[in-house]
Amino acid sequence: MYYGYCCYTKDDEPLGWLYTFDSNLEYAWTNKDLHLCKRWKTEKGAKKHFDYYNNNWQFKSKGGYLKIEVMSEFSEAKSSAKSNQQLWNEANRDRVYESQEKYNQKRPIISFRPKAELLEWLEEERRQGEDGEPETDAALLNRKLEKLKSLEQQGF
Prior knowledge:
Layout: E1 3-8, E2 14-21, E3 26-30, E4 39-40, H1 43-48, H2 50-61, E5 65-70, H3 72-79, H4 84-91, H5 93-106, H6 116-125, H7 137-153
Antiparallel strand pairs: 1-2, 1-4, 1-5, 2-3
């Protein structure tokens, strides 16, 4: 569901949905090319910029006004369509898998089960973050491995 600005004349006649062109300097309305229209996923987003667009539309239309409304026509048409990225991924599955394999080779996920004594020691070594939350397991292990690496380079 999308929210947009419906354009009205000063006589309360609905015209269509607001769109801009020429770097937001020119204002117009349409009922056909909805992909051009100003639209937001939330009503809060539409309200955020409403005053700016409404003031400009009032000037352009000589007394008209905008109203935030649900763009049902756009929502129904767009919801079933796939994005360009999804279409490309489906057409090029082998390239997606290939790049994913390269990524996984460079950044492997290592899984192991440490002994209970090591887990207790790691819990004692765990630091508190700035927000008061305990350090994550990954951050703790990375910090300890970095310390081990530096000690090893020093000759210990």
